[in-house]
Design a protein that fits this description.
Length: 221
């Protein structure tokens, strides 16, 4: 795993992500993203990425770059909310093309998001899991505050709960199901000298970002 920015230059932990050419700058030159997103422009080519930002409550989501196309999977309480807004419809937005590019640019760059490449999972398996969840979901009940992208590309997949079913838990759950070992930890017991296997769990973006940053630093040593 590595933490990176766009353009990718080293495996070092990055500064907050800057606007990469394939996501936004090429759109300033032409309107057709498909025509301008060429391999030589694509700074995050082919891979699975976890994005985190920690402004206010923060957010975490996953993107897949495959064959010069971008797939974004972002889960949250984007529709109806329950009492005290702690629960609600758990909506998975599946964004592609211009929707994905604009999501990068409009929703996250201003929050200084960081991106971490997870290099022990495949793009195919990650997409399969997310898109299976999305395809089995239901069209959400529209609300006045619901964004256009959610109305078009959102599906209710479960009940959102701030404490145990949120953007961070879903990000970790799917990436773990896709086969990553990045969240596995183990140690040797000082009393039994036996290996103890454990898994890290996260419920908030800031703890996930801190963990991935620390793991990136270890990988670089």
């Amino acid at each position: 795993m590595r933490a990176t920015s766009a353009p990718v230059e080293t495996k070092a932990v990055s500064d907050p992500v800057q606007e990469p050419e394939q996501h936004a700058q090429v759109a300033k030159k032409q309107n057709s993203f498909a025509d301008t997103c060429k391999p030589e422009d694509n700074q995050l080519l082919n891979g699975v990425y976890i994005w985190t930002e920690t402004t206010d409550a923060g957010h975490a989501f996953v993107s897949v770059h495959q064959d010069n196309l971008i797939y974004v999977y972002t889960y949250g309480r984007f529709g109806r909310k329950g009492p005290a807004t702690l629960t609600g419809d758990g909506i998975l937005n599946f964004l592609t093309g211009d929707d994905a590019r604009l999501y990068y640019r409009e929703e996250l760059y201003k929050y200084q998001a960081r991106v971490f490449q997870i290099d022990d999972v495949t793009t195919e398996e990650t997409r399969r899991i997310f898109e299976s969840l999305w395809n089995s979901g239901k069209t959400p009940v529209f609300t006045e505050a619901m964004g256009d992208r959610t109305k078009r590309r959102g599906k209710v997949i479960d009940v959102y709960d701030l404490t145990d079913s949120n953007c961070t838990t879903h990000t970790v759950q799917v990436i773990r199901e896709a086969g990553t070992k990045i969240f596995d930890t183990s140690y040797i017991s000082t009393t039994t000298q036996l290996r103890i296997d454990n898994e890290e769990d996260f419920t908030i973006p800031v703890s996930l970002q801190r963990y991935l940053t620390e793991k990136s630093a270890i990988c670089l040593q």
